[in-house]
Amino acid sequence: MSVVGMRNTKRAIAFILLVLLGGVVVNLFDNIRHIHRLPAPLRRLIAVSLPLDADADDYADDYDADGGELSSCSPQKTVFFLKTHKCASSTLQNILMRYGLNHNLSFVLPRSRYHNNAGFPNYFDRKFILPNEASNFHIFCHHCRYRHDAIRELMPNGTVFLSIVRNPIDVFESAVRYFSGTKLSLVDYIADAKRKKRRRFFSQNPMLFDFGVSTVDNKTEMESAILARVKQFDLILLSDYFEESVVLMKNALCWSMEDVVYVVHNKRKNSTRRGLSRRETRLVQEWNYGDEMLYSIVNRTFWQRVQQLGEARMQAEIKRLRRVRSQWQSRCIANETTNEHIRDPRMKNYHSNAIGYLLKPEVQNDSSCVSLVTPELKFTRDLYFRQMRLYP
């Protein structure tokens, strides 16, 4: 056997051993629910070794000679998106609102045009939304505290249920800094929260709170509740892998790449971020054990869905997504900026430390570019008045 042949054989044996090792590791980490702490390459390798509910799709070219997308499915027009806090959900919300606006769909909207939530932090109830007796609702993409029966009753049959989660450490740190403005360390903040009988929604397991699951001390009971809740959704995405998430959502909804183009919304300036110490990291993990469970369960199903789509197809679609995003950004956006440099008060972000966008002069009246960068509160008000005209 040649030297090259021996090297190839060794590489093949090493790959097989890694796949087998991945199966062992996933059992270990599934038991302690910390899969998401593994390095990304190993997490992807483990996903390949997991048993799938269906065979992975063979990759096929889905674009014609002119770059248009070929599809045998029909675009999904009814969507419920559980908008979780601090999980890049504002960016996905903008995608959904633009799609609904472009296709003349109706929205579930907060009763007040000044709000971006439907009764949150209360459990969802129809009394919190703008009535719409003239037509069925198509898209629900504003904050609410999930209540399955009430939402199922509201949305038409066949509605796709989506949500998104994020590494619990990042969610907690971001939520505490964003909503409380505290200057306490997270260690001191958690100690203070433990002393309080009544806590704000972001004080412990904020993602679980959004999903309508209460924090309890019995971890077996909590895991059962989380598993039951996750099964009520067609697809739950990971903001830590946002491009993969957008591709999965695009395919689940049978939308085009142009439909899911985006700019990042509600992102904090880098200057407001800081790293966590090891002590803070460990304490946040222990305090948010429910969110840790949720994330690990979703993390596993997410990579199974990626594998079902096919790695070759996923990488091809990410490449195309980046190209389409670059084209739109070159066409529309002059600069990223902050509120002090945005002259139109309607286009300012709710929080001053969030990134916004300045449009190029030649597209100031281009509705596609304007909606791409419109903050969620301004977009919500526009949809509110539009819907009042359509369904008085």
Provide structural commentary.
The strands form two sheets. This protein has a five-stranded parallel beta sheet with strand order 2-3-1-4-5. Mean pLDDT is 83; it is low at 24-36 and 46-61. The protein contains 14 helices and seven strands. Helix 1 packs across helix 2 (40-49), helix 2 (40-49) packs across helix 11 (289-309) and helix 9 crosses helix 12. It is of the alpha/beta class. The termini are far apart.
Task: Describe the protein's topology.
Elements: H1 3-32, H2 40-49, E1 79-82, H3 89-102, E2 107-108, E3 139-140, H4 148-154, E4 160-165, H5 168-180, H6 186-195, H7 206-210, H8 219-230, E5 235-238, H9 242-253, H10 278-287, H11 289-309, H12 311-332, E6 333-337, E7 356-359, H13 367-373, H14 376-390
Parallel strand pairs: 1-3, 1-4, 2-3, 4-5
Antiparallel strand pairs: 6-7
Any idea what the radius of gyration is?
Answer: 22 Å
What are the segments in which pLDDT stays under 50 over at least 5 consecutive residues? 24-36, 46-61
Secondary structure class reads alpha/beta
Q: Which strand-content bin applies to the residues?
A: 5-15%
Assembly form of the protein: single chain
Average pLDDT for all residues: 83
N-to-C series of helices and strands: HHEHEEHEHHHHEHHHHEEHH
Give the helix proportion (percent range): 40-55%
Kindly report how far apart the N and C termini lie.
80 Å
> What does the overall shape look like?
globular
Number of strands: 7
Q: Characterize the biggest β-sheet.
A: 5 strands, parallel
Give the strand order of the largest sheet, numbering strands 1, 2, ... along the chain.
2-3-1-4-5
Number of helices: 14
